[in-house]
Design goal:
Number of strands: 7
Strand content: 15-25%
CATH class: Alpha Beta
Number of helices: 6
CATH topology: Rossmann fold
CATH superfamily: NAD(P)-binding Rossmann-like Domain
Helix content: 40-55%
Number of domains: 1
Order of helices and strands: EHEHEHEHEHEHE
Largest sheet: 7 strands, parallel
Structural class: alpha/beta
Strand order of the largest sheet: 3-2-1-4-5-6-7
Radius of gyration: 17 Å
CATH architecture: 3-Layer(aba) Sandwich
Length: about 230
Amino acid sequence: MEDIKGKNVLITGASQGLGAVIAEFFAAKGARIFVNCAHGIEKAEGVAKTIKEAGGEAVVFQCDISNENELNSKLETLQKQYGGIDILINNARLDPYLRKAEMSDGEWFDKTLAVNLKGAYLPILAVIEGMKQRGYGRIVNVSSVWAYWPANRRMMAYSVSKAGMHAMTRGFAKEAAPYNVTVNTVAPATVPLGRGASSEEIAEVIFNTVVSGFITGETVNVNGGAFMPV
């Protein structure tokens, strides 16, 4: 198992919910955390403050990760100050239950894929070459059991975005493997065990996937038996 102490960890969508828990979990292991948010910087600052008060190191990284020019510009500035990104956790997502009533089907589809899928693709592109050059990198894409389930109309765009993430993981994993860079997916859900996985349980699985060092191109299912692939 690898030691991530001192590693630079970028976590997208880390200002609240699962992302915040992942940030605190990795910080407790000695990593420097970049707490990403597109909006709601006050929440991101709160996460960073919690980490610092616990003795960790955290920096707020406000950026729309689906905006290519903004991401590349801000990330370049960040890396000049702190060094390259060692670990990327693509956690940002658009909540499928928060669609605005005035959004058309096409607008909603475009927005969902922009955040959930392009918002993982662009950060990988932005950091993977540096990882390959340094001979070390760990990337985890946070997916969902909806990547497997037949989706109803309401969940269709979300399901498509998460299924696409699995294909993207495999492609980048093959490309990066010769350089000691691993790329994996963690797909949480719920049901047969009678409860949803806690954010802490998911964060632990993501951490274990990162530090294993020999897992790549895989999807780690954390769903309590909701989906059991053969």
